Amino acid sequence: MTTFAIVGAGPGLGLAAARRFGKAGHHVALLSRSPQHQDNLVYELAREDIDARGFTADVLDPASLTAALQEAAEKLGPVEILQFSPVPRGDFMKPVLDTTAADLDDPLAFSVKGPLTCVNAVLPGMRELGRGTLLFVNGGSAVRPKAGVAGTSIAFAAESAYAQMLHTALADENIHATQLIVPGAISPDSATSSPEKLAELLYGLHTDRKGFRHYAEPMPDPQDGTP
């Protein structure tokens, strides 16, 4: 049995994705900064007979990410699916004219060095398995930059470029890199972007293995706000 590892595991999309992949027969590795949050998620998943464990890591600390993913593979089995979907900090979202070069250090470390570190940690195991899926989840600013959230717009664009290069470079090895863009807010009441709907979309990206970029819903027209 292989492992679904989620970086940025929380009670919304993280729990829904863990539940969806766990019900499909994968062990679940929950990576986050908070052991207490991990314990809560492990408890919820255990009630549904899903084998999940928490591993403490900080996206801004590459060594902790590598150690957590290696420990997850050792304890649960090789990581076949990696989902990178941590929530950026609020201070990443300054207006572009108020953003300094130093303000980009953490956003770029979070959205570029973080996923690169994770991919490098799981790629040897995927190659040994002969298959794998890399799931990248981003907001709409990854494809349409917003001047009010300059740090995430710049960092998400860089993450997108990295993920798209992986999509091409790994295709011949049966390792599928794919991106899900969520233009609006993730909400339990959303018809398109509830945690459960997004988890189902992510599972479909893993199984269908077609194309690089996918959308949870159409991007609004920047001129009038309509799709």
Automatic annotation (TrEMBL):
It comes from the Bacteria. Pfam families: adh_short. This is Oxidoreductase. InterPro entries: NAD(P)-bd_dom_sf, SDR_fam. It comes from Streptomyces globisporus. Gene3D superfamilies: NAD(P)-binding Rossmann-like Domain.
